[in-house]
User: Fold these one by one.
Assistant:
Number 1:
Amino acid sequence: MISQQNNVWKGYFSYNSIKDISQSTTSFYGAAENSYFKRNVATNEISTITTVEGLSGQTISQIYHSEAFKKTIIGHVDGLLIVVNEKDGSMLNVVDIVNKPSVPPNMKKINHINEFNGKIYISTDFGICVFDLATSEFGDTYFIGPNGSNIQIFQTTVFNNTIYAVANGYGLLSASVNNPNLVDYNQWAMTASGNWLNVTATNTDIALINVSNQLYKLVGNSPVFLTAFNQMSLDARFAENNFVVTTQNYVYVFNNQLNEIFRVDNSVDTATRFTCATVLNDKVYIGTQEKGVLTTTQSNSTSFLNITPNCPDRNRIFAVKSFSNGIWTVYGDHTIYYNPFPLDALNVSRFEDKVGWSSIPYSDLFSAKSIVRIETHPDDEKKVFFSSYHSGLLSFQNNVPSLIYNANNSSLQTILPQLPTENIRVNGLAFDKNNNLWMTNSLVPNGLHVLRSNGQWQGYNLPVLQNPSVVSYGRMAIDKNGTKWICSNSGGIIGFNENYNNRCLRLTEGSDVGNLPTSDVRAVAVDNKNKLWIGTAYGLRVMSSVDSFLNQDQLTSNSIIILEDGLAQELLYNQFITDIVVDGANNKWIGTAGAGVFYISDDGQKTFNIFTKENSPLPNNTINDIEINKVTGEVFIATEGGMVSYRGNATSGTENLENVVVFPNPVRPEYSGNVSIAGLIDKSNVKITDIEGNLVFEAVSQGGTVIWDTKNFGGKKVASGVYMVMVSAEDGAQTKVKKVMIVR
């Protein structure tokens, strides 16, 4: 059971791709890929339920709300069932289907949920499972294929105490729902042959839809043809005395007697594809594949209102970049082999505190496809640059697209000279201390380019590579000496510095040429002690000082050896590392492809935490990107299944205490999270007292932020009132006093 407020984690999930919908008398439920939202149709109050609240992060296939039991059931493609108790928010993970040993893993998808007499009948790819809503326990499983074999069930319904099941390839099967021996496949009879997709009971009839897009009414055991649809049925349900059928471009609404009342026609908008629909309080609620949930009415069925929660465009965020009070995200990508095809023509999203999410449509992006990295100007965060792994470099001014650089107007090079605006594969971006923007350019002679602060371009070749036209580049970091450290797929990690006669060195696989475990390098970071951290497809290496680039001709790196259960082990041995980020306390956040996020100490000898989808709100263990907001310390983690953030104290220490902030302030009754004291000098002493001078909290900052859970030393929440926050530098030379109001 999970029932708790999460004060550390926050979810940034997309609700634009709707898998299924449900309803109560007062609320609408919309299930996206791995989260869902609930909207009160009277008050329009909306709540989102994600991995932060306890969902699994697995792919959702069905959602069903039981009004009688005040429970919401979430079905998944792997057979997982999550039962949400609406009374207290607790969640129960039911793994009976997932763990069925007699059923292959790829045959456990939950296809439909049907409630009758306190039980739900769960249609799966292998049969029908019965679940008791009162006890939250599984009952029997009906294997009703030939000789009791597995058989794919699309949907069930109950009418006049008969349960009907649509079995893929085996027609419409039926049995008495009160038969105590339904586990015996012999008790199930063929009612109507044919290839059916849906079976739904109205108050007076049974509706059937077949694979030929035809609607029938069951009269006795004989299907009687009623009408035909233009497209295949994707969803059919009975709601508020209406039979509702959804196809890709149409929603058909019928009455109890299966006479069509009206239809919603969206055939002219090819960018919006319907997935499911229902009727609630005389409104039609339509789930879509790209635009969340739309509503319309019978009287104005060509006008749509979007009721989807404010969210990013997609769950799969490939890169994220923070600014003072928000983040940018992009969704374009390339494979692990640096192949951008098929090309992505996607929006860019922006999130801003107190404003929410907004999108810059692809039509405004100068045809920039497969956008993979983001960088903001050090002195003006409204100047933003996006690297396209097909179209070059996209520039935003005042947060608006302004220009795209390609082979026509920059030093950037294309793989195909006859196409100067295509196949320009720009990836890693980084600003140097002079505000020059550096970037990599894959599969061409000049693999490194710079857009100088004066607007001039220059390209450089990397002479350590014998054949640069076959090398793809990834992330890049720039150290205090101005050396560019470039990740490559086959050339190791490459160091380049134009200020030292275009000096170029590399570390690659082999004990005498760099000691990397592989020449495929995916992540690089320079920490606060000028160590170079190198993440590869087969583990981690550290170079002791970036200064060695200036005075040594052959660089080397070392693994980090830790003691685990008394045995010496290599940290992150054989792990595919996707990103390395250094926080304000010089600790490291390391993303992997499949093993989650490792949060380790500055020297790697201590692992503070390993965050995975099994032990945290991470929705997926493959990490695309990690970003830390230097002001707030919020750690954004973009995964293959959505993005979450971890609110820690990962900000850098400042030079003085002039900009100390306490937030939120005031702390209102509805807020249950922590209070952050940010803008601190590293190792600042923070003391919090009540108005009478009684000490309730004390801490020393590791970096630029201290977190207070608003509890006193006894572990109890402090009472309402004004509290004094007294900050002093480690040497006592600087002090600052702030106030925070707590309202319980």
Number 2:
Amino acid sequence: MPFSQLHQYQQKLAQLGQRQLLLLAGEPAWQTDQIKQITPLCHGDWITISSNQPDAILPEQAIRLLGREFLHAVFDANTEFNTDALAMLTGTLKAGSVLILCLPDIESWNSYIDNDSQRWNDAQGGLSTPNFMAWLKNITLGNNQVMVWQQSTLLQLPVIMETAGAWALPQGEPTAEQQVILDNLLLSTSCVWSVIAPRGRGKSALAGMFIEQYQGNVLVCAPAKNSIDVLSSHTNKAISFYSPDNLLELCINNEIQSDWLIIDEAASLPIAQLEALCGYFPNVLMTTTVQGYEGTGRGFMLKLGNNIPNLRTYQLKTPIRWAKDCSLENWLNQLLLLDEPEYDVDLQQQGEVDIHPLQGNWHNNISQLRDFYQLLTSAHYRTTPLDFRRLLDGQKQRYWSASMNQKIVGAVWCIEEGGLSSELAHDVWLGTRRPRGNLVAQSLVTYGLTPDAMCLNALRISRIAVLPQYRRQKIAATLIANIVKESQKQAIDYLSVSFGYTDVLAQFWKQCGFQIVRLGVHKEASSGCYATMAMYPLTEQGEQLLQSSLSAFSLQYPQIKQQTKLHLADNLIPRHIATPQERWLMMAGFAFAHRPALTVYESVANFLVGYEQHFPLLEAFFVDNKSVEQCVAEFSLSGKKVLTKQLRAQCAQLMAEKDAKLTLRYQQWLATCSHPSCFDFV
């Protein structure tokens, strides 16, 4: 086929406001040759996402593209298929765009090793993803609007589906949908507004039009400054832009005021940060997508509505950046299940709940896959296409569903953890290794008294969701109770869960029988809350792990409370009294290995009694809670690394002052023991 025909075809797409996918399946060198001939004919940006090509945007940096527009793009998936990046890139492409998708020969897709699997699967190295590739093949080859060009065949151009009436890109004037929203925004005196829509519907453009028409002060906030390009292009006024962290700091210090705050790409920010920002301005406008490109979905809006009671939401439905029924958008929505079903959240449903474990062979039950995943996107915050990939091909996954009237209304997604060698667990306890995966088990070892958490068999509850209209019926608690019963039959030593701390969530897990055993001191980027871990013992060994984990937590909780200002409810506070052996073990792990400083604050304070004047650095850091910067300056140190080295050395010296023989025994024991435990030593 002459390339001139492809050029004419692309021009026809532009006239009709359409966009289309071109699959190049073959060797990378052949793909490069075709792209070199196509790009000069079809003029455009030809932005490229690839982990292999020079000057290309890396897949993990695709979030930088949000809020911008491009004509034509290349997505290189020869060695890794980052579906999040694909979705973000597709949403930026204007009418008339061709998206070139580069993949190996179709016959080899069953054995395709996807290096992107290292993001979403615990296994080391790339993972074969036959289920996703079979899904991709079915969606792509079954779509008569996709251009498929294999190295061994000629390109056949599909017939372009012509829609009734001519298409034209709006020339800066608001659409009817946008005008209704603008009129309401301009009349607002005090309210929090959100405008939601799939990509390409004019959310950012609407924000720019509002700035142009509003006569007062407006501030703009977004994850990155280049993400407001579209917004800026719809106003002639200068944009007062602030990063979220900087703006919040100015607000806290009462150094900034404005009539309006506009938060573009709001779902990319933690809910807690959004809630805090909304409290400082009389009017706020947030724009975001409801399709799960960045882990938004309707779950984001539900959670946002719970945290901001006076939230008013508008939705834009008609595409602006391209015409209706765009074949590229339809293909992407099918591939990643981005079209969410509409639920009547005000309709209260009742009925008998049936709990069932699911087999997980989703490729043999497409309707079940769709129901399970779309429930997560509708009811759970931060579900992304990465989760869809894990569902299809992830290892060590288990699933349960709750059904009412033969409809899935609740879901639990679990991941197997633990079962690792004592040698690896020992290295993690010492702080010399940090293997992939085992989120809770590895954290319990890193901050705990023993490496048992990584050696025992565990099941971590990764996601739990119930559709909004079915809540307050104890469906989630019933799901958990069923998982406990099933796990007790399967030699699982303990269940675990990790969540962003809120009082409501903490009490829910407490009521389900879980006990908090870890609290992080840094807020999660996604939730804006402190990471919290809880466990439910199922065997005698699991109970022993719980008790040792609670002992470690009790040693660390005073310092965690100091750093986070988070005060647990009385029924959540660990009550264990640390033994001398536990304090010695924690001290030895910090002094003679590479364990974190958080594990020894209480122990150092205990050891320092009577020795304060001999160890002013330990007193300053561990007792007076002076920062790294303060200690570095006060003791004339060159930086954090030297400070840590000094702290470890002085802890060892302090231990020797208390008991030289016992200190030597701990030092030698840690160097030779493959399974440290404070219960079988001394």
Number 3:
Amino acid sequence: MGTYEAAADAVGRCMRDEDGLTTAGMAVALLLVLALVFSSAQVYRVNAAAADIQEVADAAALAAENPVAEFMVAVRLCDAVVLSLSLLGTVAYGAGVVALCVPPAATVGARLVELGSKVLDARDAFAERAARGLNRLQAALPFLAAANAAAVGAANDGGASGGGYLAAAMLVPTRGTDIAVGPDADAAALREAVEADAEAVRQAAALAEEAARRAQEAKERAFERDCGADPAYCLYERAGHLAGLGAGDNPLYRSVDAWSFAVPLERARAYYAARLAQERPADGSAQEGARSALRRLFYEFAADELAGGYVRESDGSFEALFPRLPRNTDELRATTLYRLRAFPVTGEGDARMMHAWEGCPGAVGATGRGSVADLEEGGFAPCASCAFEPASLGNVASASTAIENGFEYHYAAIAQAADDYQAAREELAPVAAQAKGVAGDLIGRCAEAARAAGGFRIEAAPPGCRGAVALVVNVRAVAADGGFESLFVLGGMTLGARAAVSGATLLEDPSPEGQTVITALLDGFGRDGGAAVGAGRIVLDCWSGLLRAYGEGQEALAEAVESATSEVPLVSASGLGTWAAGALRDAFAAAGLQPARLGALRPVLVNSAHVAAAGDDRFSATFRSVREQALRFSSSTADLFTSVALELESEALDAVSAAERGVEVARIELPVGDLSIPVTVALPPSLGDDARDLVGRAFDAAASLYGEVTEVTRPWR
């Protein structure tokens, strides 16, 4: 049974007998019910008016935190620019070192190193300007918050409850921590090292490139003589034509990159073994028999000599031995063949005779054997059948070495190219090691500076970072019985001044909205750059990628480094450019850059006591003290707003002079592409010409309001 029904029943029982209800009893019951209905409706209206002002206070608190959330977007934007420029400077230095390792790109490398220094200078200048601009802006946040809150109050004037709202708001803390950036020792050390050692890298790379070019030229020359010239005369073609070697012993290579010096050495071994096995006189004459015997001796000698040849090659060294084959008597004297006692000797004294082979008709009855060295010493008569003389053996390979259709012609050229290649490689090794040592150290310093970039950042703890407290008063008096005029409610009374308190703070929303905002802004920067080319284009393209590193971390950094190195021309004979590019990518891959937190900051309602408890400034202390008194006492002298409002006004209006229509926090000025990009923060529309007056009136109203409280029914919000 409801309240009204119970009251009517009680009255009825008092005026009822066994015969039923009296007319007077019914009238009294109806009058009592009507009085209760209208009284309850009036109570509802009063409560609704109180609820309205609380809703306005909630909206004012949320509005007061909005400028703080927008300020933090600006902070993150500036921080992203500073971080990206830090990384850009180190990557530009690294890419410059890579380019310095490639002599044809040395000019680009020097420009990249120069731009690396200028980028870091631009970063330092931007960071200093951003810190000053953000400090000016955060000094205005209390006024901006108060203006937003006051605008909310004004926007809610009127309505069924007779709203005449004045809203005052205060940020907690009321003053922020000054934003400052210190020196970047790692970047300074990197700059000093690169400027000191860049020329050493360039010089060592130039010497290495020259040696590598000679080595490459020698290798290409040897490749052409071995098989690259096919189907023209070459070792491959001659081995197939003269010795009939198959593909297993006589491979064909189409690229010098797949070929090595071991190929012609193995080919020559197979060739002389085959020629030795195949050697036969062309006819039955004694002289042809002698020439065949000498060829067989030469082939056997060549096969033995080549068995001792070798090719030992690695990335860092090359050693090869291509045994030289004699092509005349002078060269024969330097071989073991010169003193080889392989030739039959007949006769005695002045009649002694040396023969080219055992089958010579004049060699019948040979009594010993001699050598070419013995023959040159004299005392031997010429043989009429074989006509053996010192030049006979020395000239076996003379013709085939002197003309390009001879196998030995190409073999000799390859042997000489192998010597040239080895000499160039021996010259290359120390200068390449020097270049790698210096360049590797600089690349390592670049990666260290990138890892240390996390210490050179824009960080802020602005006013309102803990929250905001809003005080709202409704100073418009309205008739208490407005809309309920009747004899059941006492007329002539008014709803007097009302007041409410609310608190709000910022919470990070894990949605991608915050990252989307930052990324959109930064992408706009990265697309600028005009008609920059060369090193300037490399830097701008790299910056476009590094801007994403703020939100994506290591992955974006690695992609930006890859992009920068891919735009540097790395083709070189020494391979130092490719090595340096790989070293740079590996070094930055270990940087471990973590993405920044980019969740959107959103104002949310909280208990105002929690906001005040988070601050240690005068306002928070005063608010806590007044609140405790209000909760402890219920006397009519309890002043709920005056002390707090005075603090609000003095703190908030101190910053009004810093508030402008829009604030340029800083300006990005890159040393390439004529880039000059402002970072601005638009102030809220509530900051009109009369904003100061509106804020002042809101504080005055809060300060003049004395709440005559007889009972505290709920804690402050």
Number 4:
Amino acid sequence: MRIKSILLTGAFAVMCLFGHAQEQRDLKKEVKVRTNFKPKIKKAKRIGEMPSVLDTVTFKKRFDYSIRSKSLDVSFKPGSIKAAKMTSERFKKIQGHSFDLAAGNYASLFADYRYNSLQSKKTDFGAHLQHYSSNGKLELENGTEVKPDWKEFLAEIYGNHYLDDAKLSSRIFFKHKSFNYYGSPLSDGVKNIFDYNNQRFNHLGLNTTYETLNKNAKDLNYKLGVEFEYFTDKYNVSEVDMGVNGSAEVKVGEGLWSLESSLNFIQTNNLVYWNSELKDHDVRSSLWMVNPSYNLTLGNFNMRLGVKAQAILGNDSEFNLYPDVKFNLVLVDRVLDMFAGLDGNLDLNTIRSISEANPFVHSGLDVENTSTNYRVYGGFKSKISAKSSALFSMEYSNIDKQYFFSMANIAVSPQGELPSQTNYSNKYAVVYNDLYKISFTGELDLQLNKQLNLYALAKYTHYSLDGLEEPWHMPNFEMEARASYRFTDQWQFNARLIFVGERSVMTNENIAQLDAIADFGLGAEYKWNDILSLYANMNNIFDAETYLWHGYPSQGINGMIGLKLIF
């Protein structure tokens, strides 16, 4: 029995081990199930949807109304409107004549007459006559009383005649100036070619210009002109200047092409050379100029690109080529502009141009030509308001043979004796020098309101000379200020200040210093009616002793009272 139990137990154990092994072997098999069955989930049926209710009962809004009218009495009654009538306005008469007459101390007399033609569609012309003289006495530094006896006269006729697309302009004039060499007296024992103590200039001129006025910029516009001028002094020194000039411009694409040209023939007779005591020397020269350029505007930027060729043929032959470049940029429209440029110029100096710069030169002075090799400039222009503006500019120049006035009778230039030096002690000659100069200029014009206007201009210049110690008679600082105030429709007041800084001068081998000039003046005008006005002006109110040219004092306090007629 025991043996049977053991056998059953062993058989059961064997079966359990076999079953466990078979289970492990079956788990390692891969079972694949193939069937066409695809499970789907049916849509769930929603429960609880709100039922729609259709109301078959309708209501219509209905109401009754009525207006009970009642008249309202109004007291206003419109008046009748009169029919309009055309009435002619009184024509404001345009006056063609004006006449000024004034007198003052120093036996001063001023007269000015102008006439302009009226209401002409084709032609306008005018005439102008002016006289100014002063004959009072002045006192020199040594106490001597002298008489300047200064007189000026101008007569001119001018006019324009308008064609369909052109204009013809002409002007003829005559200028006369006479004065005394009232300054430093002549030195005793000085040998002069001829002695004299007064001078007289006569200047006659005529010019005519024909100019086209085509409105279309693509059409050629041109200008042609001729001129003639004759200048002479009291001692038979004379000068003739005859010339022709012209210009043309046409727009091609976005740019404007232009060409300017001129040719002048100048003959001067009876010049004086002190080193050879030659008094009857004649000079003939021709000045030719041609200046092509291209102008272009691109939005707020415009420029000019050109070149200028100038040649002097004759006694002083010379040829120079100069740039002609300008730029302008609008930084703020109608408010601020920036400008810059580069150019140069050849000046043919004549006895007329020199006498206009300084009338106290000796008769027959011959001056060499001046060349501005290049001039670089730039600055800003500002439009403060409709009637107010400001400007600031800077300029740098290189100049050959710039002349300076000197009264030194043995003045010497770096190259040796001057060909035009003077032995006079009361008349000026010139001395030359090459130089560089830089200048700064500021200008302000303010129209504060309808009554008050202010204007100021200041300029500072620094000279760098190649030989001379100082730029004779040339100031470093200059200023002008003006104010105008309209008190009423009848009364107007004005004030003016002119300031010229100290200047170095050469006289008889000595360097002198001219004091600064500060000329303050006041004026007033009273408009009596549309025809008559009365005015008074006063200059050098502080009675300062001033010298514009060494040896020649200017007038002290001086004034004029006058009237003006318009008829």
